[in-house]
Design goal:
Blueprint (H helix, E strand, L loop, with lengths): L4 H7 L13 H9 L13 H11 L6 E3 L6 E3 L17 E7 L4 H13 L2 E3 L2 E3 L3 E5 L5 H9 L4 E5 L3 H11 L5 E5 L4 H11 L3 E4 L3 H13 L5 E4 L5 H16 L11 E2 L8 H13 L4 E4 L4 H14 L12 E5 L8 E5 L2 H14 L3 E6 L6 H6 L5 H10 L10 E4 L7 H7 L4 E4 L7 H6 L2
Helix pairs in contact: 1-2, 5-6, 6-7, 10-11, 14-15
């Protein structure tokens, strides 16, 4: 953020109303400076001050949205070079390339792959999001018409201004990415981006050329841009991605303060090598990645890598605290308790579901820590588990007083029996894979 907490405080109304959630305007200003509050929470700030602060607090890399609905992709908005410094916010989009000279069955196969290659992991739906439509023949508008009927985000790729206008007439409601403005067509494509209110990709032969084009487009009123430095080698693409990111974040170069797009599909004809290049660009620092085709063996590892990198390292993935019925339990069904770390929750629920034994699962808030870590930190102990079992409402759902605790928390058994008099506490297995065996013999 360009302004300090004191500088922000001078622009606030100084009413100390508390409606923003902070006790004073000074506290709110400090939270804004630290990136821990949102300017919209202040209900009495003047329009002039809001405009100043909005500009000052905007991330150095602009957030650009492509597409609409469930498959909308948000790029940019980043504030750090390295994930451990804070976090990365908007994960890169993954697109598959469709060329208008392809046979209809090949096009349909690639579109169907986008639907089929979706994976459920820790409660999230991992999937590619977009279709990149490239014009090489005379069937571009027909390809756009077919793609516009799908729910996916679109990238429209043609250098023909008239053809791009026709494609935008078909697909403008989907807010596609226009690819790409170059030195030869910058004025025409800039006008199209403004007319249709769509984001615009900008392509040059190097980073310096990008700066000249984005400055010209920004002066013409184009705000949402995506950068392509033109490099089509892994080494060149990597170097350009790092240079653009560093210039935007550390050098505050506004002309490079936009997300990027990269084309591993144009860097090799080997799908394995293409996937390796894509994995490099997910980490460093592409906003959109276009692949030649989608197969389970290359897509799933990339989606998993993206999930791991773009999960906030300061905020563990958690599940809501509460009582979860699994396999339609009754009043006589067994009761298990565990932590709210998402990975633990989904592993445990998966094993319970596989057992087909009706079961109640009590999930306790341990601030996203695993059972063993929560026990070591004093968050999954008798003094916390006991009150949780009393208050969570499970006693009203069952006709018995029997509870199974995780094997890694066996040390709390004695204290928990004192905390829950009349309950029969059983120590379950340490490994989730043994839960079905426990439940079937319970």
């Amino acid at each position: 953020m360009a302004l300090t907490g004191i500088q922000i405080f001078k622009l606030l109304p100084k009413t100390n109303c508390g409606e923003c959630g902070s006790p004073t305007c000074l506290a709110f200003a400090m939270a804004l400076a630290a990136g821990k509050a949102e300017l919209e929470k202040c209900p009495t700030i003047s329009a002039e001050a809001k405009e100043q602060l909005s500009e000052a607090s905007a991330p150095p890399i602009r957030t650009v949205s492509i597409g609409t609905g469930d498959y909308e992709v948000k790029l940019g908005g980043e504030t750090v070079m390295f994930r451990h410094e804070k976090t990365f916010f908007n994960k890169p989009g993954i697109a598959v390339l469709l060329i208008d000279t392809m046979a209809d069955n090949e096009i349909d196969e690639r579109i169907n792959a986008l639907k089929e290659l979706q994976y459920e992991r820790v409660g999230l739906n991992l999937r590619p999001e977009a279709l990149a439509l490239k014009q090489e023949g005379a069937n571009f508008l027909a390809l756009v018409t077919k793609a516009a009927a799908t729910p996916y985000s679109l990238i429209l790729m043609t250098s023909d201004g008239a053809l791009m206008k026709g494609a935008l007439d078909i697909a403008k409601a989907k807010k596609p990415l226009i690819y790409a403005a170059t030195a030869e067509n910058v004025d025409a494509f800039g006008a199209l981006a403004k007319e249709y209110a769509c984001p615009l990709a900008v392509k040059a032969n190097d980073v310096e050329g990008l700066m000249a084009l984005t400055e010209k487009l920004a002066a013409a009123g184009v705000k949402d841009m995506v950068l392509d430095s033109g490099s089509r080698t892994p080494k060149g693409a990597f170097a350009d991605q790092v240079a653009i990111r560093r210039a935007a974040l550390q050098g505050r170069v506004k002309s490079l303060g936009f997300p990027t797009i990269a084309f591993p599909c144009e860097m090799t004809k080997d799908l394995v090598k293409e996937s390796l290049i894509a994995s490099l660009l997910i980490a460093k620092y592409a906003g959109f990645i276009v692949l030649s085709e989608l197969k389970g063996e290359n897509v799933f590892p990339l989606l998993l890598e993206r999930l791991n990198i773009y999960t906030d390292p300061q905020r563990p993935m958690t599940t809501d605290q509460g009582v979860y019925p699994i396999n339609n339990p009754t009043a006589d069904s067994p009761v298990l308790v565990t932590c709210n770390f998402s990975l633990t929750y989904f592993i445990v629920t998966g094993e319970i579901e596989n057992s087909r034994v009706p079961t109640w699962l009590c999930v306790m808030d341990t601030e996203g820590l695993s059972v063993m870590t929560a026990w070591a930190a004093g968050k999954f102990v008798a003094d916390t588990v006991g009150p949780f079992i009393k208050k969570c409402g499970i006693a009203d759902k069952i006709s018995h007083k029997k509870l199974v605790i995780p094997g890694y928390a066996a040390g709390i058994l004695g204290d928990l029996e004192e905390e829950l008099p009349g309950w029969q506490i059983t120590v379950g297995p340490r490994e989730a894979a043994l839960i079905p065996q426990l439940l079937k013999s319970y």
